[in-house]
Amino acid sequence: MKVLIVGNYVNNRQESMQRLAELLREGLEEEGHEVQLVRPPVLLGRLRPDEIGLGKWLGYVDRFLVYPALLRVQVQWADVVHVCDQANSVYLPHLRGKPHVITCNDVLAIRAALGEIPESPTRWTGRVYQSWILRNLRRAQFVACISSQTQKEVQRLIGLGSDVPTVVPLALNYPYKPMMLPAALPYLRARGIDHARPFLIHVGGNQWYKNRPGVVRIFAELVKRPHFKSHRLLLVGKPWTGELRQLVHILGVHGGVLEMVDVGNEELHALYSTAEALLFPSLEEGLGWPILEAQACGCPVITTNRPPMTDVSGGAAILVDPSVPEEAAQAIANMWPARASMKQAGLANAALYTRQRMIADYLRTYTTVCAQQLRGCES
After folding, report:
1. Which stretches does DSSP call E strand in 115-195?
2. Average pLDDT, the chain
3. Would you say 11 and 39 are in contact if contact means Cβ atoms under 8 Å apart?
4. Best CATH choice for the domain 2-171+354-378 from the list 1.10.10.10, 3.40.50.2000, 3.40.50.720, 3.30.420.10
5. Which of 92, 180, 216, 349 could form a disulfide with 314 if both were Cys (CB 3.0 to 4.6 A apart)?
């Protein structure tokens, strides 16, 4: 089968979406299929490779004015087209009637534009853009959601039946497994981390739903307890915002919270494998890749007591309410002795999220949309 994968614009720096596209390409090629991974070209965006201001608008020209004509040529080669991100539903009218699948990772931006998420106000331009995305998503031939929670929201927003869209959970995007301490130590030393002092880790950016301020507040409550007094918190991901830096100082934990940016896969592998736990109290997620990454490394997980985090963690996590940091910290302290059993349960849960399983699920969707197209041509 010839599969055209439509990935994301590179200047948007959506690392998780780029990894998903590569994961699909590698998995499909491994199964013997012909694959082309295409993305909107960076043309005007070269002038200002930013995600804000003029750079954002130049990127819009590349993505929405220049690329559709090129895409109409690219799709001619394919038997089926896979669009990796719901935000690219705007390309669906340019697929020339080709059988297609679109992966929906989450609908948080759409919900925010509809006024459903007060924490994420949207300007009028953003509301127009998200309305455009939703309108085209409703016309998709096949929507594959990465979690049951995303499926539920898509059904509500699009008005589809109970059997569509379907759920195709993401696979782990890197071969994470427990790393032995001697192998991890060079990575820790390179970052100036003393492995003898215990630490928690959070992985994520500054998006509102990642709840970095909540992570710091929970940690500040946790270190008030004698057992956690010497613990540190490593915030892995984007550079801190000014507001986050100020909060760390206000709460008096600036000596124990470390900023870690530009962390590579093997560094992250080492951090997961030596951390006492992943602290991941997100307010919302599409799936929550770090939960699975941590579990695959034998790292216990502390996460939010709501879907999709509860589903993805597979019952192998300490569950907390992130809206009440003091109660969350107490719940962590109460459940701390159970971490050893959670390690084993987490390893078993993460082992379910294989690339082979994900690719098999997607191949079934490709067969479905191609059969639908064939029946449509015959009728």
Report:
1. 143-145, 166-167
2. 92
3. no
4. 3.40.50.2000
5. 349
